[in-house]
Amino acid sequence: MSGKTRRLDRLFVGEQKRCLLSPLDHGGWLGPVKGLDDPVWIVKEVIAGGANAVLASPGFISAASSVIPSNVGIVLRVSLTAGLSKQGTQETPIATIDSAIRLDADAIAVSVFFGREGDIEIYQWLASMIEECRPYNIPVIAEMMPPETVAYDAKAIAHAARIGMEIGADVIKTNYCGNVEAFRQVVKSVPIPIIVAGGPKSKNEGDDATANMARDAIEAGAVGVAIGRRVWQSDNPRDVTKQVASVLWK
Fold first, then answer.
1. Could you tell me the CATH number of the domain that includes residue 108?
2. Diameter of the chain by CA atoms?
3. Its pTM surpasses 0.90
4. HSE of 67 in the Cβ direction (CA atoms, 13 Å)?
5. What is the rounded CA–CA span in Å between residue 162 and residue 168?
6. What gap in Å lies between CA 247 and CA 227, rounded to an integer?
7. Considering Cα of 31, then 35, then 40, then 46, what sign does the dihedral take?
8. How many domains does the chain have?
9. How many beta carbons lie within 10 A of that of residue 32, not counting itself?
């Protein structure tokens, strides 16, 4: 079994080989907001709720490393949005393959926000990171986000995801379009695993909206979900995570 396969097996678990990834990587963008202000506490909560992997920056992982069990996957965020900068609408490289090795990461993650200034440069850097990870068998998760004006359009999602696949990413993280049949076509056109991003919860959504979204995404062919703000902005992150876990692993 190759090193890449072993690492992916820590991210995609159970008979169905699914992933409940907990993104805790918003601190550079939003600051130490409620839910992210205590790294150790929130990591304990999401793991207790059933998250089998966490996505975070090097500093966050170091701060919470004492409470991350060996069977929980680590996805290292190697690009970050600097919320205080005028240029902070696009991701900025912050870590290297050496960082991933030192932190024993199972994968790295890079985000590309198309339609924002600097998208080509970060796209090129993603491609270079994929090449650098190849000799070490470290998987790359490419978060490929279409322009904001078509953020939830199935064709735009498929196009963004396909770009990530074309340059060699192992897994795609992207938006769910809100329609099972339409997303099935996205999955069909991008023949590598797709994890659906949770995104923000709207004011009109009920308490079961997050689990319902996860259920629809899995039905459409996604292999996992990455629920961040919907979890750590909630009053009970553990319970929300449990609800989503019950959808992925029945």
1. 3.20.20.70
2. 47
3. yes
4. 15
5. 10
6. 13
7. negative
8. 1
9. 10
